[in-house]
Amino acid sequence: MSKQKRTAPRARAAAPAAPAEQAERMPSGAVMERRLAETEYFTPGSVACPGCGGALAMRHFLRAMGPETVVVIPACCWAIIAGQFPYAALTVPTVNCLFAAASAVASGIGAGLRVRGDRGARVMVWVGDGGTYDIGLQSLSGALERNEDMLYVCYDNEAYMNTGIQRSSATPPGAWTTTTPGGKDMAKKNIMEIITAHRVPYAATVSLAFPEDLREKVKKARDIGGARFIHVLAPCPPGWKCQSSETVKLSRLAVDTKLDPLYEVENGLRWRITVEPRNLPVEDFLSRQGRFSNLDANDVRRIQAEVDRNWAVLRRQAEVNPL
Amino acid sequence: MRRAKRTISPKRYNPKLPASAADAKGFRGASDMPAASVSVPGGSMLVCETGSWRNVRPVFEDKTPPCLPRCPAGENIEGHLDLLARGRDAEAARLLREDNPFPATCGRVCYHPCESGCNRAEWGGAVAIHSVERYLGDLALRLPAEKPAARAGKSGRKHRRVAIIGAGPAGLTCAWHLAKRGIEAVVFDREPEPGGVLRTGIPAYRLPKDVLAMEISRIVEAGVELRLGVEVGRDIAFEDLRSAYRAVFLACGYHRPRALGVPGESLKGVEDGLDFLRRINYGQKVTPGRRSVVIGGGNTAMDCARAALRLGSHPLVIYRRTRGEMPAIPEEVLEAEREGVEFLFLMQPAEVRGKGGRVAAVRCQRCRLGEPDASGRRRPVPIKDSFQDLAADTVLLATGEDADLSFLPSGWTLGDNGAVLDPATGHEVEGVFAGGDLTTSRKMVANAVGSGKAASWVIEKYLSGRSWSESLAELEHAPTSFSVARLEKAGAPPRSSEIVDATSINFDHFPKLSRASAGRLSSEEAIRSFAEVNQGFDRATAEAEARRCFHCAVCSRCDNCFVFCPEGIVRHKPGKACGDYEIDLSYCKGCGICAAECPRGAISMIRENR
Amino acid sequence: MKTAPRSRSSARAARGEVKVITGNYAVAYAAKLSRVQVVSAYPITPQTSIVEKLSEMCGSGELAAEFIKVESEHSAMSCLVGASLTGARAFTATSSHGLAYMHEVLHWAAGQRLPIVLVNVNRALGPGWNIWTDQTDSLSQRDTGWAQLYCESNQEALDTVIQAFRIAESVLVPVMVVLDAFSLSHTSEGVEIPPQDAVDRFLPPYRPAVRVDTANPRFFGGLVMPEHYMEHRWLLEENSRRILDVAAEADRDYGRAFGRSYGLVERYRAAGAELLLMATGTVASTAKEVIDAWRRRGRRVGLVRPRLFRPFPIEEMRSACRLARRLAVIDRNNSFGSGGIFATETRAALYGLPSGSRPEVLSYVAGLGGRDITPDVIDRILSAAWAGRAEPRGTWVDLKK
Predict the structure, then answer these.
(1) C 88-117 residues with CB below 8 A of A?
(2) Is the pLDDT score of A162 beyond 50?
(3) ipTM of the complex as predicted
(4) B69-143+512-543 adopts what CATH topology?
């Protein structure tokens, strides 16, 4: 049987709530009840560092995805966090794979499940920024082009953290890493533009500081067929040289400084900004992290200008091609 | 082939795989291991107790919100705002009345020091606690009265009987708290009607008489006995009270006018301000002259001036310090000014001048501010030869009152804590406690309510068998507030007396919302009658305002700790309702996100002793 | 070409239609008969027509498989890793650089014990680009944990692919089936296509004990510490050794079912041979002609052809060669600085025999990059070997020095 693409959404999820106004950032009682009803699929005892953004992200994604999920993890921090033989930290099927191979392994699992008649399970590919922006980009692009039925999640901690903080093409300009001792002097790759250029059914950014927005988008992505991509910034206390308690705060600041705008894109063409940033200066985000300690006022100005430029482009997209 | 022939069917070989998490440990060797790295989930990772990584640990620790110790009446402000915000209005009103039997009154006349400490101040303005209190107070009026607790049998009557001198807010509060605990409280007052200064001193445009009457009738319904028109020392001897009752609470207030001490004070048209208000409040016909000069800067002065205004007079308030030192509630001063009351600051009366035995003018002397006095306010220093005559048809003296304790045995003195000292013995007089204006530093209704509650607390301990000194010591154990809930839980974890300030608040979780203000009559309309000026909050406004509360330092079950824990180890206690959290310390790595993301500082990170 | 399956005239043997097809098509038919469920491949000459044919079969519905058309061989093998983890029967084909590009994934598939079958059409590695036959590509993957079977004819290619699934699924070790570029891949000959029902009886559906299944979750490929790593490697080693029996049994069963079997090591006129030639793939066919000619001249020569390279059939090789005086190994491959790879393997295999009862192993490297190994070349090799002439690290034959 040739592969019949299920490009049409499997079942359209209810549209997420209107762009969250400030007043709606606090969860309502009803939302709390829902939160409680959900099961955890990430058990304690993992070796994630204290305050790991990637760990928190997995917890929330799986709570939204539910038990009918197969997680595919290439080389990245999570290859270790998921557990050491014979133990496992996730309670759903989990497959570790080669660094460059995640999207392909996911494609194979998807095909295998289909031929075996298992149509309920959903494949979630869980990859760091190295495996997404760098070594896995080719297989990711292939899978997106084939519109494989998978939810690809990039948890972006902005460097090769598992190997001890080396720069990746997701490392932001100015950031110290062990391979950019004077600070990186190149821009961060715009992965969302790469992804949306494939015209995938759904692409979105989410933030750990906005769990309701995250949840809505993951659930929406979960119930769409074809290739879906979600980017989540995952603060890394050892790599960012920040307080382990500030993971969520930095996630929030990244959104509010427009460094990590929250939006969603359908079919690569229709854009919507889902959380209006508070428009804080980037310095609020940068100054809380040791990796940016070598920046001077000029550097900060340059970064601010770049952020403003990127925001203007995104804003324009959302205005010209609204969702 | 020399090899031994062995037939292996395709299906005979199956790689071994662990069947359960229990298998995931202690392999003897390859023969009992799975063929490849295949692990069984279902909690197998729990073998790794990551709690050992930690050097700090989160602890849920309700602390003290800044409004709480500031409330003289000891209301559980955060608590009733929380209930109101959840739409549980009646429970909120009951919780409020548990601490204060005068919420509708205090919601109108309190000087609300609670709001001055509100951490919301920079985030849209302090929560309008005072206005919410009035909303809940009015709601409480419509709720059934608390049932009196069963009393002890007749034989033990004396042992459960308390005499209270003064049916003002302190006395009635004390009586109410005692009655609720099954202690018989008999309140004596020389006035024909209860309420003390609330009844006689505060004009109806601030505190409608029906509101007060309903509030007091609730207190009486709770089992309080009133003996009105009975003056202790005149109609009944203090010693007789002492012998008939196990304890006596002195709450007779300050009602003897303080003389001005200037010539012409006894001229016709010079009147004591409180007496002026009393006559108005009892419905007598009062007609001040065209020009009233009110002397003083307190709430009585404002009440006199605004009452005079409503009776057709043109009031002028003279005060010897500046506006900033006025003891009156600032809103009252503003209201008075808005309605057309005139003010002259740094002026003190030197003489009341008359014409034909009737007041004609007040001769005043200018002042400047000198060094601070005992109250912390700068002392007015008269300036030589700076006299000025101000025309006056009526002069209303609102310069304060004194206590009249002539009925007490001579030599007895009142301690700050309410204890009464007998110099003859050098000891505290057993069973006698003083409160209200007699002991509070600020002579305000809320302070009186708080001291009445404290008195009830001491007296109840005494009646339940503790010695008098032990009972008095109870007050020292009370935490920063006299809220009943907190008195009862005094010293018990998890409440700590640490007051949470704005640095412990995570403002990220709160929208910046502006403070609501209550509607009021226009000044033109207001001065035409004694109708209530402040219109109060409607339900929606009160609830919205309650939602602005940060619930500083008190876990409000917002779930942030649960949501943002990367390990998923903040859990709801099994079988408990949402909000009773526990942290699995076997796995907590001590990252501190829960404490950082707690919006209100109810989680502390404490160092581990390892 | 001269093929010599040890035909057993069994009354029960299922016979099928004979088609004149290329080696690549024979492989495609074999994959179809094996009811592969997931195919993933990337084009590379000379393998391409295998997946073209499979693509066509999937497109027409003749084969009920998912065909994932990936962007690289790395992804092709990765797809099969994923598919095989779900319990699906997985197949791919590649050549040369494509196989080299798969390298790390080959390790992963074997280490995770996934019974994938891969057909590699031998092709030389660049640079410069060379699309013709040469075994260095597959032999470079010697230590990945994959079994390797080398075929001599189109019929054998078809038969071996079907057997390969049975071997792989019996021991959970992936199997590589290797055939020569062009001389097999693109050369047509008569191939008997066995009936599907008989193949189904020979090769039951793959039903792994554990697989990716949300009803019975497992974690595959988690970090393994030194405490356990060696035991996992031992289990792979142990099961690789069992392939010797499993493959022999599969071949015997296949012979009973279809009338063709090949043995792990084919012996051609080897009995009583003083000089044995050893060759794999189509070189063996040519060599058989030359052997026949030498035998006609009364020279006692013969041929051994190992089909299995990994695991190396040491016992069978010893048994086949122990009585010969010399063994001349023709390698269409080279391990630089060391010589022909089959020769090296064979020397090691025979070394355990007592010194008096083992042949002298002579190594000849020939036909690299698709250069023809003509009967004349083999004749010259036989002559040199007969005379005992060979360089210690292998003589490069037909080399323009």
Answers:
(1) 88, 90, 104-105, 108
(2) yes
(3) 0.95
(4) Fumarate Reductase Iron-sulfur Protein; Chain B, domain 2 (1.10.1060)
